[in-house]
Amino acid sequence: MSSQLPYREVLVDTYALTYLHSQEVRNLLVLILSKFRIHVSVLSVQEFLSYIYYKLHDYSLLERAAEVLYKLYVVENIDRETALRAAMIAADLVKRNQDFNLVDVFNAAIAVLRNIPILTDDPSRYSGYARYGVTAISVEDFIEEFKATIKA
Amino acid sequence: MKTVALSEESWRKLKELKEKMGFRSFNELIEMLIETWHLSSLKEELSRMELSFDFEDAKKFINDARRPVKKSSAEAGTS
Questions:
Q1: A49 in any annotated domain
Q2: Which 3 state secondary structure label does DSSP give A1?
Q3: What is the CATH number of the domain that holds A65?
Q4: Domain count of chain A?
Q5: What sequence ranges are listed for the domain PIN (chain A) (predicted)?
Q6: What is the pLDDT of residue B77?
Q7: Does some domain include residue A27?
Q8: B2: distance to nearest CA of chain A, Å?
Q9: Where are the domains of chain B?
Q10: Does the model's ipTM exceed the 0.95 cut?
Q11: Quick one: which of A59, A75, A109, A133 is 20 to 30 A from A103 by CA?
Q12: CA-CA distance, A84 to A79, in Å (whole number)?
């Protein structure tokens, strides 16, 4: 079994991270994690953990979920370089009078600095970021391509 | 290439496994064993999350959490 997808590393945004852990595709996640190095920003980890706490209201489960996420993924903190790149992107978006979400801006900055694509539920979310070098891929398409490669 | 030292017992078990699995080399067998260990570790880690949810429900939560903050009355020019 070998993956023919043209990348070995990806950044998942909060939506893609959630999708990967949802009951829809959870069974495939082990295989995906064994084939790809998956990055996720600490901001997406926080958003996902918020959802877990909202659902379960159980601190010990929240702690365990955080521990698992930090083991399975490359969690990207907001370092100096990322802050600088995110600042430039946000400034440009304001100049262009374009609405934005800060988590998306940080994802864009991380993806550009690491030169990796972003997996998301809706690639149009990052269409305004293509000018900064961001490539966004539908997480559903990624799963379908991955399924095809493991069947091949 | 690297060599490793094995006990007689481990060597016998490894040879048996190689035959059972139909591998041509010990290298292939060891790669398979490492991958299997990796997959089972990942599976074990994931099972610790004890979480089952529907994506649409999670998406709604994220969208709600990201809802823009309402402007204050001063900013909105209604003071």
A1: yes
A2: coil
A3: 3.40.50.1010
A4: 1
A5: 10-123
A6: 64
A7: yes
A8: 25
A9: 9-66
A10: no
A11: A59
A12: 9
